[in-house]
Amino acid sequence: MINVTIWNEGRHEIESDEVRAVYPNGIHNCIKNFLSINDDLNIRTAVLDDTDNGLPDDVLENTDVLLWWGHMAHECVPDELVEKVYNRVMRGMGFIALHSAHFSKPFKRLMGTTCSLKWRDGDRERLWCISPNHPIAKDIPESFNIPVEEMYGERFDIPTPDEIVFMGWFKGGEVFRSGCCWNRGLGKVFYFQPGHESNPTYHIPEIQKIVTNAVYWVAPGKVIPEVECPWVPSLEEAYDGPNK
Predict the structure, then answer these.
(1) Cα–Cα distance, 202 to 208 (Å, whole number)
(2) Can you say whether the dihedral through the CA atoms of 135, 140, 141, 147 is positive or negative?
(3) Which of 68, 138, 223, 231 has the fewest CB atoms within 10 Å, measured from its CB?
(4) Cβ contact 18:198 at 8 Å
């Protein structure tokens, strides 16, 4: 079983009728619903206003993959929690930053850059799969249309990705590195651009498939208890010449 935690601010759904009409049970529960068809995923959800911001130590330590959606309350996330998430990724946890989580504290901590970009809501996007052999691209067509999405445009201030899986093109002419992969310590990180809160993006089958594929890709192969820098003895006996 892969233990998945879907973290969402959960503020837009409370404050906006427009957003609540698209995601009446919250973005996190929409994502949970389509991930739940996979029997090997053990899924929990968390929101910013939960106790311990939804990520107490026991939950974080037992999370293999953390999905993060944030937008209007990035600064409300405690720095102490950000460091715990960062440390957990270094030790092997997978991290998926969704849409405006590009500006979230955990993602910026993992990237070490401003993660700034250009934006404009209400555009049409064509998402291009430029790495069709990547596991996150499994069963995804060469391109598909997102009827309405928030435009994110370059320059996107991120470290050069280890791999770019998707590129977005918008009707206004902008392009964007919409699906990017990094290795951080023992953990894997995936950033995925589509998913504005007032647009029904997470109801699109191709988007659901990409997010699902990403969960399996970032799932850890190995997790260590702590990040250490230990002294160790030699594993080999001292060399004293050829055997007689």
Answers:
(1) 6
(2) negative
(3) 231
(4) yes
pLDDT computed for residue 243 by the predictor: 64
Annotate 114-124 with b (16+ C-beta within 10 A) or e (fewer).
Answer: ebebeeeeebe
In this predicted model, which residue has the larger pLDDT, 226 or 213?
213
**What pLDDT is attached to residue 222?**
82
Starting at the edge strand that comes first in sequence, how are the strands of the sheet with 94-98 ordered?
Answer: 41-47, 2-8, 65-69, 94-98, 187-192, 175-184, 163-170, 118-129, 143-153
Name the 3-class secondary structure at 242: coil
207 closest CA partner among 66, 13, 9, 31: 31
Q: How confident is the model at residue 236 (pLDDT cuts 50, 70, 90)?
A: confident
How many beta carbons lie within 10 A of that of residue 171, not counting itself? 11
- Taking the C-alpha atoms of residue 139 and residue 59, their distance in angstroms, rounded to an integer, is 32
Which residues make beta-bridge pairs with 191?
97, 180
> Could you tell me where the DSSP H helices lie in the chain?
12-15, 17-22, 27-35, 57-61, 79-90, 105-111, 205-218
How many C-beta atoms lie closer than 10 Å to residue 73's C-beta? 14
- What was the pLDDT predicted at 237? 76
- Check: CB of residue 109 under 8 Å from CB of residue 86: yes
